Amino acid sequence: MKPIRTIIVDDEPLARENLMLRLQDLAGCEVVAQCSGGRDTLQAIDLHQPDVLFLDIQMPDLDGVTLARAIKALPNANAKLPLVMLTSLGRSELKQDIDLFEAFLTKPIKPSSLFDALVSIFTGQPVRVRA
Length: 131
Fold this sequence. Notes:
Distance between the termini: 28 Å
Low-confidence stretches: none
Shape: globular
Largest sheet: 5 strands, parallel
């Protein structure tokens, strides 16, 4: 079975490291890149061809929603890349942009919520994520 290739995007190094460890604990996940902002993320997507992207909503150079819009506007298959929003605030600030994301995880991320989100994305069967 091919590993699920992931990219983590968060301006906070400790948050990236924590999520990377959680993903590595899940069998079948491989973190192929960690990015601190939006601009390097677009290059990493082209270079690594991930299966899923984890985006922090609050970043200084390009926030998660703006980055998600940029990814969805890409002219190739990357536009269909599943996006998971990482937030400490909840979904309320994303009213008009909620459809950009396949899942929402609230920090600190619980392993069970992370697992449920990945199951939902890759099996096509909705799993209620109550992070």
